[in-house]
Amino acid sequence: MNVVDVLNHFNVDFQEYSASASAKCISVNCPFCPSGDTGKHLGIFRDKGNFSCYKCGERGGLFKYIREVKGITWSQFEAFTGTKQYTGESILENVKKIFEKPEEISTAINPDINIVGLVPADHAKYKAVLRFIEERRFDYTLLAFFKTQWCLSGPWMNRLIIPLPPPYITKKPLCYAARSLSPRNDPRWLFTEDSRHHNILYYNNHPKNNWKRLTIVEGIFDAWAIPDLAVCIFGTELSPTQLLSLQKDFGAQNIPVRIILDGDAPVKAHKLKEKLSSFFSSIEVIYLESNQDVSSCWANRERMDLFNV
Ligand SMILES: [Zn+2]
Predict the structure, then answer these.
(1) Which of 58, 97, 258, 291 could be stapled to 32 by a disulfide with Cβ–Cβ 3.0 to 4.6 Å?
(2) What's the rounded mean pLDDT across residues 185-200?
């Protein structure tokens, strides 16, 4: 069980990952802010469930938050989380203990591919990783959120190894993307299975969480830059499998869709819209300048309108 399971169970409205907040936190509205808060300024730490509001400073444990917004009792909370088995000093201590068991970082790499020398990428001592984070203006903890690893030796050396789909969609990845952070490595992107990624939708957040819109982008880092729900389709075209999965994930909801491809692909964006128009009734194509993509806009603070939620 993790914090997200508990929030889902009690129907709490939350934003799993936000580019403006630390990836350690899940963003929610704050019921304690005097003026009421719809900006999701309260962060719930995903490791222990304790929270803190950036705006009014209120702090506490997960139960206190859910009681405040959903009016649940301790016994309802306890019945779902099984907190009783822990005998800490306080309710807060007990709730923390549920989440304290660290999740293992998956190192189960596709056995067909020999990737050696993997370490979790969220470590400050790897300069290339740090530079990448700074240049892209990503939060440092985001690499841990997406369970990204860094390869120190062998043929995949100096590449970020990214599990596909992300760990909150499937525990066991279908394949891995490997992005070179060294200009000497060619090509920049490699995949552990040649074309499998064309059958995968790479969501930056869990798609089932009542999002107000869906943004379709070309690359993984574009998806990472979008603060609400985005999906990377690995290029400018949707494969039949990807199209079917999109329909399966959103068919009944009729979520508004934005298409933002790299600036050099305006015709392809238009074709994509046509392809999607039988499934989605509201589709907006956003065109960028020819030298722009979503992730460069985020990094260079251009087109900041794209990142408003
Ligand atoms: Zn507050």
Answers:
(1) 58
(2) 86
Å from CA of 59 to ligand 1 middle:
9
pLDDT at 113 over 60: no
The span from the CA of 38 to the CA of 238, in Å, is 35
Rounded distance from Cα 14 to ligand 1 centre (Å) = 15
Sort 308 into a burial class: Cβ within 10 Å, 0-12 / 13-18 / 19+. exposed
pLDDT at 86 over 80: no
Residue 1 has pLDDT above 80, yes or no: no
Residue 51 Cα to ligand 1 middle (Å): 10
* Distance in Å, CA 33 to ligand 1 centroid: 4
* Residue range 231-259, pLDDT digits in tens: 999 999 999 899 989 988 997 778 999 99
> Which residues keep their CB under 5 angstroms from ion ligand 1?
30, 32-33, 53, 55-56
- Express each pLDDT in 128-148 by its tens digit: 888 899 999 998 788 888 888
How many residues does this entry show for the chain? 309
Distance 86 CA to ligand 1 centre (A): 29
Residue at a domain's end among 140, 164, 195: 195
Q: What distance in angstroms lies between residue 74's CA and the mean position of ligand 1's atoms?
A: 22
Instruction: Give residue 210 CA to ligand 1 midpoint distance, Å.
Output: 23
DSSP string, 192-221: SSTTGGGG--EESS-TTS--S-EEEESSHH
Domain count, the chain: 3
Check whether residue 247 and residue 183 sit in a common domain. no
* CATH code where residue 7 lies: 3.90.580.10
Radius of gyration of the chain (CA): 20
The range of the structural domain enclosing residue 210 comes to 202-307
The predicted-structure confidence for 209-219, as pLDDT tens digits, reads as follows 889 999 999 99
Distance of CA 45 from the midpoint of ligand 1 (Å): 15
Would you say residue 86 lies in a domain? no
Give the position of tokens 């350690």. Answer: 24
Please indicate, yes or no, whether residues 277 and 213 belong to a single structural domain of this protein: yes
